[in-house]
Design a protein that fits this description.
This protein is 27% helix and 21% strand. The protein is α+β, with helices and mostly antiparallel strands. Strands 7, 8, 9, 10, 13, 14, 15, 16 and 17 form a 9-stranded mixed β-sheet that branches.
Length: 320
């Protein structure tokens, strides 16, 4: 047999009394861990403003530098300031900063003579003048020319705005156009086939004469496009020999202007906001002209798509 090694008996000792040094080190460790956790929850103020969708990071820097941002009642000017979105109360231009999930979608009927911009160095009338009742800092999705009118969207949702304006999304925009003459069907067909304007070749998805609105001298044309080049429709009609006298955007996708008056706006729910991604196709437009076509629509889950918005029979006459 092998020799058994001796084993030293170890008696469990009583836990020693905690010393001051023990408490000091423990407290310091807790403070460090708490500070680390707090630092993780803090982010740069300009990033938080940009993430909320009301501006770009650079524009957020400008808002801070100009003293338009307060944190817990104190005006902030330093760009490197960090905040806790859950604990700190942040105001931009006196309005609470909305969190990213609190997206706002607005449909506005822009009148002519109004610039699609939030600021103008010449102090001309801009769309910002009409947004005083909107409880968030929103920006226009796309644009309408100064001398054009109709449907214009506003939001603080940057992802939504980018998707709507991205050419790959092919979001349809429907316009009513009054021209100085009576273009033939052959000339209108050229718009569908494609014409070259400043910025490249463009084409219409659909073109249609609105019979009941036209007169002997002037014609009203409904045109559907997906591009959004500068003064595109005016250039397209100029290519076939006609000047545009009046231009009104009546729909984006299947979100329609309807009876909304000039200068008025309505808030959209998520269902209504998503209608812009439903293509406005000629057959759909034709079906919606008649009450028979409306009756055939057995299900209209989003009939209350806009708060306070009601369709009128006159919208059928506009072919929208």
């Amino acid at each position: 047999m092998g020799k058994i090694k001796s084993v030293r008996s170890i008696t469990p000792s009583e836990p020693s009394e905690p010393t001051y040094e023990h408490f000091r080190k423990s407290n310091e460790q807790e403070q460090l861990e708490s500070a680390a956790d707090g630092e993780k929850s803090r982010i740069r103020l300009n990033k938080l403003i940009a993430d909320s969708g009301i501006s770009s990071r650079r524009a957020a820097d400008r808002l801070i530098e100009e003293g338009n941002v307060t944190v817990n009642g104190k005006r902030v000017y330093e760009l490197g300031t960090k905040v806790d979105p859950q604990e700190d109360r942040i105001l931009v231009d006196g309005k609470p900063l909305r969190r990213k999930f609190e997206n706002v979608y607005v449909m506005f009927h822009k009148p002519t003579g109004v610039l699609t911009t939030m600021e103008d160095p010449l102090n001309r009338l801009t769309v910002k003048h009409f947004l005083s009742k909107v409880p968030a800092r929103v920006f226009p999705v796309g644009r309408l020319d100064w001398d054009s009118e109709g449907l214009l969207l506003f939001t603080n949702d940057g992802d939504y705005a980018n998707k709507v304006t991205n050419p790959k999304s092919e979001v349809t925009k429907t316009y009513l156009v009054k021209v100085d003459g009576q273009p033939s069907k052959e000339k209108l067909n050229k718009l569908v086939m494609g014409v070259t304007i400043e910025g490249g070749k463009v084409s219409a998805k659909a073109v249609e004469i609105v019979e009941e609105r036209g007169k002997d001298k002037y014609a009203w044309i409904k045109i559907v496009i997906t591009e959004g080049k500068n003064r595109q429709i005016r250039q397209m009609f100029a290519k076939i020999g006609f000047d545009v006298l009046k231009l009104q955007r009546v729909a984006i996708g299947r979100l329609r202007l309807g009876s909304l008056k000039k200068g008025e706006l309505v808030f959209l729910n998520d269902v209504a906001a998503e209608r812009v991604f439903m293509a406005d196709q000629p057959k759909v437009v034709t079906d919606k002209q008649s009450y028979k076509g409306r009756a055939n629509s057995s299900k209209r889950p989003d009939s209350r798509k806009v708060k306070g918005y009601k369709e009128k029979s006159t919208t059928a006459k506009l072919l929208i």
